[in-house]
Amino acid sequence: MNILISNDDGVFAPGILAAKQAVEDLANVTVVAPDKNNSSVGRRISLFKHLKIDSCELEDGSLAYSVSGSPADAVIVGVDYVMDEKPDLVITGINAGVNISCDITSSGTVCAAFEAVSLGIPAIAVSLFIDPNTSYRQDENGEWYVDYDFTLTKKVLHDLVLKIINEGFPDNVNLFNLNVPSNYESEDVKITYLSHNMIDKKVIDNTDKEKEEFFNYSLDENHESDNLIMITSNLVKEYGEGSDGYALFVEKRPSLTPLNINMTYWDLNEF
Fold first, then answer.
1. E strand or H helix at 145, and its extent?
2. Fold category of 2-193+239-270 in CATH
3. DSSP calls for 251-268
4. Tens digits of residue pLDDT in 208-226
5. pLDDT tens digits along 1-59
6. What is residue 173's three-state secondary structure?
7. Residue 21's closest CA among 64, 54, 53?
């Protein structure tokens, strides 16, 4: 089996090495990813634009390729240029963050998997939800850092790929969206549906004194007429039982959502 791994956090993000380590005993793995962070770019594709591709070395000494484009670009380049033959599976991630609900269409991680499916290759998008209450640590100098514990995510991903190798994808499913909480209470994977949305969005401007920390300078009178605005967001707090958000945030267990990127509603007689 041949697997292409990509992401939206950049080729040197710790999650891409974790994804490789999770499945390298099951398949031949090729890593092609953006050269820098491309979070929340959706399925942007750089058609008829110059892209730079470089070989690089991951922390374990293995070969990878960086592309000066989007996550979807990296998948296309990996499939059509780097690999000698089309991969059997594409894995995107492990994303440091959460990708749930109908908001996944803005995710670079998930949309890179969308791109793979459009190329005729089934895919898995994988994310690790970093719990801010438990995943931040301080070193001996008092500096804060993120404790990326990919242990459970790697195990769930490995088991899922092994199941796919043995049984294939379910009928009418061509993409799995996997989210694993860092602060979990159960290792049992829950099959879920997409929540309505993941984030509440609000537009603020530079006259909002309560939100001035979001801007890069103090909101004094010299800047109040600059007409600066910003889209801000907060995670939704309530999710329906059986949804990906409910599994992740309420049950604190891995969520696996089977998807088909053809968004047609099939029962046309009901229209």
1. strand 144-146
2. Stationary-phase Survival Protein Sure Homolog; Chain: A, (3.40.1210)
3. S-S-EEEEE-S----S-G
4. 666 666 655 454 555 555 6
5. 999 999 999 999 999 999 999 999 999 999 999 999 998 899 999 999 999 999 999 99
6. coil
7. 64
